[in-house]
UniProtKB/TrEMBL annotation:
Region annotated Disordered, chain positions: 1-36
Biased composition (Polar residues): 11-21
Protein's recorded name: Helix-turn-helix domain-containing protein
Lineage per the UniProt record: Bacteria, Bacillati, Actinomycetota, Actinomycetes, Streptosporangiales
Length: 141
């Protein structure tokens, strides 16, 4: 059978991606009628870089991937709270909280509560992590 023109190569092209993708159920092969992803124009400003593993991890729901992408789109030091995330999302409070918990349970997000010098609880730091990397050192965050 001739090779179909325009059928994209499998997503897992590198050994590390192949190792990562083996824990997921395989996707069905793309049919000869499959279409490829196209972009009209590439963004030249106001864009974010995100690891393919983050956006393609099939253990995460689309909602959790959206929250992860939104958090990643801000510069380090951006002041964020659960309320900020809820207000930025089209979903309700409970759905957004569930997505945040999902990111925590899969190791993409660590929330650390600060304590003031007087021992009172303070704000919460949102730390984005790579679940396959060692946990962050609190001294460096």
């Amino acid at each position: 059978m001739p090779k179909a023109i325009g059928v994209p190569a499998p997503i897992s092209n590198t050994p590390s991606d192949q190792a990562f993708s083996t824990r997921h159920r395989p996707c069905p092969p793309v049919s000869e009628r499959g279409r490829s992803v196209r972009r009209a124009t590439a963004p030249i400003s106001l864009f974010s870089k995100i690891a393919h593993r983050w956006s393609r991890d099939r253990q995460l729901s689309w909602k959790a991937r959206g929250v992860l992408t939104w958090l990643n789109s801000h510069a380090p030091g951006f002041r964020v709270s659960e309320k900020t995330i809820v207000c930025a999302a089209p979903d309700g409070r409970d759905a957004t909280r569930a997505a945040i918990r999902e990111l925590e349970s899969h190791g993409y997000l660590v929330r650390e509560r600060e304590r003031g010098r007087d021992g009172r609880l303070g704000g919460v730091n949102y730390i984005l992590c790579e679940p396959w990397a060692p946990p962050p050192d609190p001294e460096e965050t």
